[in-house]
Amino acid sequence: MAKKVLIISTSARRNSNSDILADAFMNGAKDTGNEVEKVSLADKQIAFCRGCFGCLKLGRCVIKDDAPEITEKMAQADVIVWATPVYYYEMSGQMKTMIDRANALFTKDYKFRDIYFLSTAAGEEEDCDERAIHGLEGWIACYPKSRLAGKVFAGGVNDAGAIKDHKALQEAYAMGRGIL
Q1: Position 36 pLDDT exceeds 90
Q2: Nearest to 55 by CA among 39, 75, 40
Q3: In the predicted model, what is the mean pLDDT of residues 4-33?
Q4: pTM, to two decimals
Q5: Residues whose CB is less than 8 angstroms from the CB of residue 164 and which lie 6 or more positions away in sequence, other chains included
Q6: What distance lies between CA 51 and its chain's CA centroid?
Q7: In the prediction, which pLDDT does 126 show?
Q8: Nearest Cα to Cα of residue 45 among 69, 80, 75
Q9: Which helix (H) or strand (E) is 17 found in, with range?
Q10: pLDDT single digits (tens) 51-64
C-alpha cells in the first residue's frame, strides 16, 4: 500500500544541495508508488513560535502564516522527511523554527511513524551532522509512535551544485525506494 510522504526542504535557497538531496529521495519514493509531496520553506513565511501554547488549546497555531498549513500536512503524512543544510554543526534555523511551530501536533492523532533526515554540509567529518540529528531526535521523542528511520549525510558540498556527483544522491534515492 502506498504511503503518504511529506518532504520538508528547509534550505533558504532554492535548488540548494540539500534540496537536490531531497529530490533524490523523492524520486526513489515516487518510483515505488508512494504519494510524495515536497514543501520548500524557501518561499514560506514562518514566524518564530511565541510560546503561548494556544496551539494546544485550539489544535492549530494562532499565528497566521504558512506554518499551520505545513503542520496539518505533517499530521496527515505517514512519513516525514526533513532535508537541511548543516550550519555550525546544527540544523538550519528554518528547520528548527518549523519544528517549534509544529507544536500543535503534540495533541493531535498524528499519522507519521517514520522520520528521515537528509543533510548536507561543507564539512566532511563523519559526525558533522550529529548535533542536528540529536536536535531532531528531541522532537521525535515527543511523538512516541514515531522513530528516526534513516539518515543520509552529504559532506564536502559547500558551493551551489557541489552535490551533483556525490554518492549521497544514490543513498537518498535508495532510501526513498525503500519506503513501502
Answers
A1: yes
A2: 75
A3: 97
A4: 0.97
A5: 20
A6: 22
A7: 86
A8: 69
A9: helix 17-31
A10: 999 999 999 999 99
Q: How far apart are CA 112 and CA 74, in angstroms?
A: 7
CB 55 within 8 A of CB 61: yes
Q: What is the pLDDT of residue 37?
A: 98
Res 152: pLDDT? 98
- How many angstroms separate the CA atoms of 98 and 153, rounded? 21
Q: Are 14 and 40 in contact (CB under 8 A)?
A: yes
Dihedral of the CA atoms 32, 79, 13, 21 (nearest 10)? -40
Q: Enumerate residues 6+ apart whose C-beta is below 8 A from 106.
A: 55, 56, 142, 143
Backbone angles phi, psi at 67, to 5 degrees: -65, -45
**Average pLDDT score over the chain:** 96
How many CA atoms are closer than 13 Å to the CA of 171, on its beta-carbon side?
A: 16
Across 84-95, average pLDDT: 96
Write b or e for each residue in 25-55: b if 16 or more Cβ atoms lie within 10 A of its Cβ, otherwise e: bbebbbeeebebebbbbeebebeebeeeeeb
CATH of domain 4-177: 3.40.50.360
